[in-house]
């Protein structure tokens, strides 16, 4: 919580960085709360960002609005925003492997802060950063903030508009996939909220795209795609190899099966499952969590698809 985080320098620096990022982006302005309006509360969220090996890379503090107190039609209207499907990400990896292309990755710093708000929204001043002498005032949001119900849509609308201005064509069947062609060159960009991957056949197009994106959205160029949505990616001359080793180990540990014996067949042929009426009842939340975890693993493990499908019937 905030009190504990305040005492540690790493989290203190992370909070300072978040506030600087918000102020640099001109996200809010100090104002008096008008009659008939209610200020939405805010809270600090803390996360230690880890790499594929499970080592802490950086400490991230995020200021989040308590969106659950927002009222439909007053504080927000439309909230839907698309994200790329894992099948699309896999298809891009396959395409790059066949054509011997390299896939690059970028991350948007505080992505949701780039979204423009259409509604008039007021929030309370954040803990640790309340302005002295102005304690009774609130902050009027000019741009979206994490936690707001309309934040993902506002960000998606903003970046979609930018892509269209730069002559990208949006795929009609996958609304988070954008393609740009110049003569015989192609650039493919795929977006999952604030994580962007791109590939194509012309490195000079990459460089131009990279510089423009960094200038427009304050993005971080991560380099070659190596870890994306929990998928570990290895790109070399022999092809592109994907694995979810760290995630699989995490699932085994979570459900206390890390000491189990591995087998090649995830399910015996002809197995028929049925409800064991006399047996001990199972916690449905744990079962759903287990099946959901396995479903995410099927992204790169088609060998367990059938077994996962069978246990999914008993949700």
Plain-language structure description:
22% of the residues are buried. Helices cover 31% and strands 24% of the residues. It folds into 3 domains: 2-78 and 115-147, no CATH class; 86-110 and 153-242, Double Stranded RNA Binding Domain (2-Layer Sandwich), CATH 3.30.160; 244-313, no CATH class. A 6-stranded antiparallel beta sheet has the order 7-8-9-10-4-11, with helices on both faces. The model has no long low-confidence stretch (mean pLDDT 89). By secondary structure, the chain is of the alpha+beta class. Helix 7 (284-297) runs antiparallel to helix 8 (305-312). The protein has helices at residues 2-6, 9-24, 86-99, 151-165, 203-217, 245-254, 284-297, 305-312; strands spanning 28-31, 42-50, 56-65, 104-108, 122-123, 138-141, 169-170, 177-182, 185-192, 195-200, 219-224, 227-228, 231-236, 239-243. The radius of gyration is 23 Å and the shape is globular.
Q: How much of the residues is beta strand, in percent?
A: 15-25%
How many independent structural domains? Answer: 3
| Average predicted local confidence, pLDDT | 89
Helix count, DSSP H or I runs of 4 or more residues: 8
Task: Describe the protein's topology.
Blueprint: H1 2-6, H2 9-24, E1 28-31, E2 42-50, E3 56-65, H3 86-99, E4 104-108, E5 122-123, E6 138-141, H4 151-165, E7 169-170, E8 177-182, E9 185-192, E10 195-200, H5 203-217, E11 219-224, E12 227-228, E13 231-236, E14 239-243, H6 245-254, H7 284-297, H8 305-312
Antiparallel strand pairs: 1-6, 2-3, 4-10, 4-11, 5-6, 7-8, 8-9, 9-10, 12-13, 13-14
Helix pairs in contact: 7-8
């Amino acid at each position: 919580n905030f009190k504990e985080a305040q005492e540690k320098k790493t989290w203190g620096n992370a909070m300072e960085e978040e506030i600087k990022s918000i102020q640099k982006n001109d996200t809010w302005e100090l104002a008096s709360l008008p009659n008939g309006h209610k200020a939405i509360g805010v809270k600090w969220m803390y996360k230690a960002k880890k790499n594929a090996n499970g080592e802490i890379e950086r400490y991230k503090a995020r200021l989040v609005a308590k969106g659950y107190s927002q009222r439909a039609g007053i504080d927000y209207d439309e909230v839907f925003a698309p994200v790329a499907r894992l099948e699309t990400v896999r298809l891009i990896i396959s395409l790059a492997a066949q054509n011997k292309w390299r896939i690059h990755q970028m991350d948007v710093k505080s992505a949701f802060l780039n979204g423009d708000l259409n509604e008039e929204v007021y929030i309370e001043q954040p803990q640790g950063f309340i302005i002295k002498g102005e304690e009774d005032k609130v902050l009027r949001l000019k741009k979206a903030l994490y936690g707001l119900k309309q934040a993902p849509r506002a960000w998606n609308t903003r970046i979609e508009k930018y892509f269209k201005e730069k002559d990208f064509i949006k795929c009609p069947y996958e609304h988070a996939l954008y393609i740009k062609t110049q003569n015989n060159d192609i650039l493919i960009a795929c977006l999952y909220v604030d994580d962007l991957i791109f590939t194509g056949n012309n490195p000079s197009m990459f460089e131009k795209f990279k510089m423009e994106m960094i200038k427009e959205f304050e993005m971080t160029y991560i380099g070659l795609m190596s870890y994306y949505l929990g998928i570990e990616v290895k790109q070399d001359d022999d092809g592109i190899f994907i694995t979810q080793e760290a995630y699989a180990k995490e699932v085994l540990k979570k459900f206390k099966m890390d000491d189990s014996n591995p087998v090649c067949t995830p399910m015996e042929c002809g197995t028929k499952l049925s409800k064991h009426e006399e047996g001990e009842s199972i916690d449905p939340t744990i079962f759903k969590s287990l099946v959901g975890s396995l479903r995410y693993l099927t992204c790169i493990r088609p060998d367990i698809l059938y077994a996962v499908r069978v246990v999914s019937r008993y949700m």
